[in-house]
Design brief:
This protein is of the alpha/beta class and about 325 residues long. The chain has 14 helices and 9 strands. The protein has a 4-stranded parallel β-sheet with strand order 4-5-6-7. A 3-stranded antiparallel β-sheet has the order 2-1-3. Strands 8-9 form a two-stranded antiparallel ribbon. Helix 9 packs parallel to helix 11 (about 205-210).
Length: about 325
């Protein structure tokens, strides 16, 4: 089979699936159940069901994305007379564009869809489904609004004094329950003020972290970041984590002591960043401090080596599980 025939075959398969979807829709619409004409009144469907029910979608190397019921357009394709005759109908029902936008903005559904798309193992539980802006108050009293503006700040002077949300949000109770039942809570790696600390700004999450019986492990940053943590030593990172999480100390602290080449340091110096220095004060904030070479270089970009870091964390899981059981 030539390349053209292969492409035509794939196109036929996709077209066949599209027709199947249309047939299913009309089968439901012409069943004995009353016709629902206001599609905006329908709840957003659980689109995980078709993945779990049909092996093709579950096992396919290509992850399919589907739209829910209804369409805001009145295209010729759906309104041609032959379709009307085939399905013995002269009426199609439509969704409003606003209703479709509302579904796209449904964070919980979006996370489920993205998790399926990326084939995530486990569960992604945001601390809240509400929308709020992260704000940073600087030491001179100036306030920076939104995470992106904090993240892209071009200068570290004056430094950040505190971060907060611009309004209260409702906690996701599933996240609290997950923390309460955990054997180990892993914090990081990630940007201190825009990735890790924002989770603690939801009071119920802060309380769950501060009171959990699970082992709490913090993975320290490899490099400082311009606009957020310039000049920070390891103890400053962990003291801020303790400050916002409501804990006096953490159970374990994982730090990196890899020696970086001058070439790598120079590349980061241009970004006003440098390796995080391990100072003696870290022992004031952690019961156990693990210091190892955990770096994986990608050119001149410094990353945590995923295998080395995973090995350390997996060792903690068994240890912490036994401690909680006792």
């Amino acid at each position: 089979m030539g390349e053209t025939e292969q492409k035509a075959g794939k196109l036929g398969l996709y077209a066949g699936l599209a027709v199947l979807s249309v047939l299913l829709i009309f089968t439901w619409a012409t069943s004995d159940k009353p016709m629902i004409t206001d599609l905006d009144s329908l709840p957003f469907p659980d689109r995980q069901l078709y993945r779990s029910k049909f092996p093709y979608f579950k096992n396919s190397p290509i992850t399919s994305m589907i739209a829910t019921r209804g369409c805001p357009y009145k295209c010729t394709f759906c309104e041609i007379p032959s379709y009307m005759d085939m399905y013995e109908t002269n009426k199609f029902y439509y969704r409003s564009a606003e209703n479709i936008i509302a579904e796209v903005n449904d964070l919980k559904k979006a996370i489920e869809e993205l998790s399926a798309l990326l084939r995530v193992k486990g569960h992604v539980l945001p601390v809240t489904y509400d929308q709020a802006n992260l704000c940073a108050r600087l030491e001179n009293g100036d306030i920076i609004y939104t995470e992106s503006d904090i993240d892209l700040r071009s200068d570290s002077i004056p430094p950040i004094e505190t971060v907060y949300l611009d309004h209260a949000v409702k906690v996701n109770q599933e996240a609290v329950n997950a923390i309460d039942s955990a054997d180990l809570v892993l914090l990081g790696p990630g940007d201190l003020y825009t990735s890790i600390i924002p989770n603690f700004l939801v009071p119920e999450i802060k309380n769950a972290i501060s009171s959990t019986r699970a082992c709490v492990v913090y993975v320290g940053n490899l490099m400082t970041k311009r606009g957020e943590t310039s000049g920070y030593k390891a103890s400053k990172f962990i003291s801020e984590v303790c400050r916002y999480s409501g804990r006096e100390t953490l159970d374990y602290l994982i730090l990196n002591n890899a020696t970086l080449s001058d070439e790598v340091k120079f590349a980061y110096k241009k970004e006003q960043a440098e390796p995080v220095i391990i100072d003696d004060e870290v022992s004031n904030y952690a019961n156990n401090v693990i210091i190892k070479d955990l770096v994986k270089l990608e050119g001149t970009t410094v990353r945590h080596d995923p295998k080395l870091l995973t090995d350390e964390i997996m060792a903690f899981i068994e240890l912490c599980s036994n401690t909680i059981t006792e």
